[in-house]
Amino acid sequence: MYEDIPEEKINKFHEKLKKDAEAGGYHLNPDTDFTKKLVRGLIVNEDRYGYQACPCRISSGVKQEDLDIICPCDYRDPDLDEYGACYCALYVSQDVLSGKKELSSIPDRRPPEEERKMQKESKLQAISSLNYPVWRCKVCGYLCARDGPPEICPICKAKKDRFERFL
Q: Is 39 contained in some domain?
């Protein structure tokens, strides 16, 4: 079923992802064949779950439980800083792109499910004392507490429609 994704759709999504990444100061893995396989996985997950869960992780199928692994995942930036690539190697650092650093194995920093639940409960307790709703950028994870989402994300420049009510 998912083998039937048209190459044109994969190419179009790849180009959009590359353009968005570069606009935000990020870089896609230069191995285009490898990257397009990951793009294909994102398309499959979008069709399957309704959101672009990381193609290298097991998704629950429940968006609220998978917010941390919706591409680009919450772990991308720490992985890029430490290893030069994110967990699935879709995104790479400038050093990897320029050949100054080689790709290597990247451990998964996503905590086990039980730990994620405890962290979420702790965050909810801290945030529940705020007098404003909390908005989350679905692109980069930026959070802000205010009456409504900003017109443009100050971190990744995503538009207002890419924000969701977090609390």
A: yes
Which CATH number is 154's domain given?
2.20.28.10
Residue 106 in any domain: the answer is no
Chain Cα centroid distance, residue 152: 18
Q: Is residue 76 located within the same domain as residue 33?
A: yes
pTM score of the predicted model: 0.73
Q: Element (H or E) spanning 91, and its range? A: strand 91-92
Mean pLDDT of 146-158: 91
Domain that holds residue 29: 2-97
CA distance 19 to 22: 5
Tens-place pLDDT, residues 43-82 = 999 999 999 999 999 999 999 889 999 999 999 999 999 9
